[in-house]
Amino acid sequence: KYEDIVSIIESVIETQKVNTKIHQFHLQKETDKTTVLGDRDKLAQVFTNLISNAIKYSPEGGNITVRIYERGNRLCVDVQDEGLGIPEEALPNLFTKFYRVDNSDRRRIGGTGLGLAIVKEIVKAHEGEVSVTSELKKGSTFTVSLPLVALASTEEEERDNNEKYAHAHVIIVE
Ligand code: ATP
Ligand code: MG
């Protein structure tokens, strides 16, 4: 289905906000083309996992900035925090099931190590990509990119789109 990424992210931020008093949330919308094809609940899960990580791994608070922009024919969403950061050697394993960074600065922070593996699966099923850049003690930025769809302006275009993206309706998450 056609979904507006902005409305999905706004509702995730509203829900996550209540879990913290020490973080400021910023939503920066830099493009008007924000329609993607996909599953609203699954996409909400992606941003819930990323934003809850941003909260959890910045125990001293700070800004959490979500930036929505266009690159080529893709819609990109950055989720940026000012938290603990991720050691370089951990980056290649980050999206692997059950992988957790074992550092003295985060040993007390709980989790199962599934959040990012789920993010990767859902994003992949939407023909998107997820990547991360990070600096220890400075913060992390996770970027999700998804194929942008031109909103159909005629019925014929809509039929074409529905055909073209028919497979996008089937989303499998283990
Ligand atoms: P779960 O999400 O299943 O509750 P988790 O948060 O440990 O557990 P993931 O979300 O998959 O699992 O994250 C994997 C690891 O990556 C985490 O243990 C954490 O060390 C690191 N990590 C993830 N997001 C961030 C972030 N925003 N800042 C710093 N480290 C992060
Ligand atoms: Mg997590």
Question: How is this structure best described in words?
Answer:
Residues 1-150 form the Histidine kinase domain. It comes from Anoxybacillus mongoliensis. This is histidine kinase. The protein has 174 residues and is an alpha+beta fold. Helices cover 29% and strands 26% of the residues. The protein has helices spanning 5-17, 40-56, 115-125, 155-164, and strands spanning 2-4, 23-29, 35-37, 62-71, 74-80, 129-135, 139-147. It has a 5-stranded mixed sheet. The chain has a two-stranded antiparallel sheet with strand order 1-3. Strand 4 (62-71) and strand 5 (74-80) form a beta hairpin. Residues 168-174 have low confidence and may be disordered. Bound molecules: adenosine-5'-triphosphate and magnesium ion (MG). Magnesium ion (MG) binds at residues 49, 53, 111, 115.
Key traits:
174 residues, alpha+beta, five-stranded mixed β-sheet, two-stranded antiparallel ribbon, 4 helices, 7 strands, binds adenosine-5'-triphosphate, binds magnesium ion
